[in-house]
């Protein structure tokens, strides 16, 4: 894997995070290529990570074993059609563009292209991301391993069996960081009202979120069981939990995730209709 040549079409935040994660995990920088229309982006990647950079997508494709499409969904059709004639036989394409289906990618590339579609999330920017992957039937077991390894450079990577599951993944982990930020924002506001300074409230909330996530990751118990462990009968936590439940907290979360999933489906259909 560390000698595999990997190319990125697009050098934005997510691509830069993947490149940084690969280099940090021991991948040779000279085996990595990035193309982008922004010369400042290329200069920064070359200076800080030592990777190969170019403004020509075709140059990247000619040099690498696998191509990662890391451009905005709105321009992916244009880019995919442009690079299609340049792809090698059986050269795998990995797309991290949200909402763009395998069907669309196959139409823009070619029917025989091995394609992996990914749904990463923004914590990948700090190497703690969660990514779901789906492959078409042209992707070999070795290519699946390679795609998984690339995405594991920025966190965990999990395969789904059906592409439609990526809409649920979008609702859960793709949009998920914003849900936690909203809760943290609300807690911080009330903590200040209760008399804490903004700085104290923010640090306490951030560390508490980090600690809770770490416990959940390292425990074999369900979140429900972990919640019960810190909820003493008749205590302050129970009082808070019961207040949340009376306010319809669980049902509101369900409505929010269903709404996000439905919007993901809707956006995919809109993008397909416009290309």
Summarize, please.
The protein has about 280 residues and is an alpha/beta fold. It has helices spanning about 15-25, 40-50, 55-65, 75-85, 100-110, 140-150, 165-175, 175-195, 200-220, 225-230, 235-245, 250-275, and strands at about 5-10, 30-35, 50-55, 65-70, 90-95, 115-120, 130-135, 155-160.
Q: Explain this structure to me?
A:
- The protein has 275 residues and is an alpha/beta fold.
- The chain folds into 2 domains: 6-168, Rossmann fold; 174-266, Orthogonal Bundle (ProC C-terminal domain-like fold).
- It is 55% helix and 13% strand.
- It has helices at 13-24, 39-49, 57-63, 73-83, 102-108, 141-152, 165-174, 176-193, 198-218, 223-229, 236-246, 249-273; strands spanning 6-9, 32-35, 52-54, 66-69, 92-95, 115-119, 129-135, 155-159.
- The mean pLDDT is 95.
Taking all Cα atoms into account, the compactness measure Rg is 21 Å
Biggest sheet features: 8 strands, mixed
In the predicted model, the low-confidence regions spanning at least 5 consecutive residues are none
Count of spatially separate domains: 2
Helix content: 55-70%
N-to-C terminal Cα separation, in Å?
Answer: 35 Å
Judging by the overall fold, what is the CATH architecture of the largest domain?
3-Layer(aba) Sandwich
Name the structural class. alpha/beta
The CATH first-level class of the largest domain comes to: Alpha Beta
Number of extended strands: 8
Look up the CATH topology of the largest domain.
Rossmann fold
Residue-averaged pLDDT: 95
CATH superfamily of the largest domain: NAD(P)-binding Rossmann-like Domain
Helix-strand pattern, N to C?
EHEHEHEHEHEEHEHHHHHH
Shape: elongated
Please state how the strands of the largest beta sheet are arranged side by side: 3-2-1-4-5-6-7-8
Q: What count of helical segments does DSSP give? A: 12
């Amino acid at each position: 894997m560390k000698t595999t040549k990997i190319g990125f079409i697009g050098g934005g935040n997510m691509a830069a995070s993947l490149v940084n994660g690969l280099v940090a995990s021991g991948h040779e920088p000279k085996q990595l290529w990035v193309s982008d229309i922004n010369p400042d982006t290329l200069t920064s990647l070359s200076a800080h990570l030592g990777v190969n950079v170019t403004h020509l997508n075709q140059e990247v494709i000619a040099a690498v074993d696998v191509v990662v499409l890391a451009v905005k969904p709105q321009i992916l059709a244009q880019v995919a059609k442009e690079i299609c004639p340049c792809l090698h036989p059986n050269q795998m394409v990995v797309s991290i563009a949200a909402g763009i289906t395998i069907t669309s990618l196959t139409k823009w590339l070619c029917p025989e292209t091995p394609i992996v579609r990914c749904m990463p999330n923004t914590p990948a920017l700090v190497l703690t991301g969660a990514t779901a992957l789906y492959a078409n039937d042209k992707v070999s077991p070795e290519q699946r391993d390679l795609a998984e390894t690339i995405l594991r450079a920025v966190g965990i990577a999990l395969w789904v069996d059906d592409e439609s599951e990526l809409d649920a993944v979008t609702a859960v982990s793709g949009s998920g960081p914003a849900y936690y930020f909203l809760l943290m924002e609300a807690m911080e506001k009330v903590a200040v009202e209760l008399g804490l300074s903004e700085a104290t409230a923010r640090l306490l909330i951030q560390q508490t979120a980090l600690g809770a996530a770490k416990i959940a990751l390292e425990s074999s118990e369900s979140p429900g069981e972990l919640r019960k462990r810190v909820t003493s009968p008749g205590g302050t936590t129970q009082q808070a939990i019961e207040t949340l439940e009376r306010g319809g907290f669980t049902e509101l979360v369900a409505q929010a995730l269903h709404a996000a999933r439905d919007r993901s489906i809707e956006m995919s259909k809109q993008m397909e209709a416009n290309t």
